[in-house]
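Let us practice reading a record.
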Amino acid sequence: MNSQRRNLLTGALAAVGLAAAELPFASLARAAGVPQPLAPIRQIRAGELDVGYYEAGPADGKPVLLLHGWPYDIHSYAEVAPLLAAQGYRVIVPHLRGHGSTRFLSDAAFRNGQQAAVALDIIALMDALKIPTAILAGYDWGARTANIIAALWPERCKAMVSVNGYLINNRERNKLPLSPKAEHGWWYQFYFATERGQAGYQANRREFAHLIWKANSPQWNFDQATFDRSAASFDNPDYIAIVIHNYRWRLSVADGDPKYDALERQLAAGPAIAAPTITLDGDSDGVAPATDGKAYAARFTGKRTHRVIKGVGHNLPQEAPQAFAQAVIDVDAY
């Protein structure tokens, strides 16, 4: 990888972007202040799902999977995707189960949001797209999914970018109380554990997401059009069921699927990640305060560096697309 590519975002692009003739339409529209949706959205059957995903870049490029979190969607990568595509990467941005145009193939399928199920969705997607290995990058649910794949299926993960570090869940550890300040940040998990919470979320999903966006990223001045672009993904008929189950499962107030029990036991043990990794924190994250990355350093046995991005909250790729894209490019060279 030449120095020009490695310094994609520290040279001319950081100041003025690519030449207009080279920029995808969505990036031009964003430069003009109009948040365009990622399009077209493709569909492919993968595992239990018909997965909706956006793809950019050359078909023979090095694959990069960009994985979104909650309560967000693929548009967290609306600016990251064209930056990476312009550098020759094949960029895949899937709607996670319960989001956007992703649908279950069976009406009878368990609407399961546990971590192993979400990770296996991405393995199935890679299989369906005939991608043997890829760079995995994500935040929130997406970072956890990347962590799981890197830990349990290391041959599928060439390198990884993970916001907030090591996020694999251990349900027994999750039963332990945290400080009042930390518990306050996770208030919605307790709300979702109640029937009132589920009914409230069903009735107010957009208002709820808007509240979380503001709380998670207090310095991010997103506009209504940007929020509405992502909020359309929350109209998926399985959205509420998947989100509620995900958080109830984490708190051990809902059961998972027994077919994942063996995988969950492996994950509860805190498996190490050998893939080259860059971990990122936003120093204005309202739910996961930035750290120096040392607390989970032992979980990474390969080369890893940690970066703190100034003025950025929880939705790091959308708030700081250049820094996120640069991390993907840099970790590819590790």
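A brief commentary: The CA atoms of residues 23 and 82 lie 8 Å apart.
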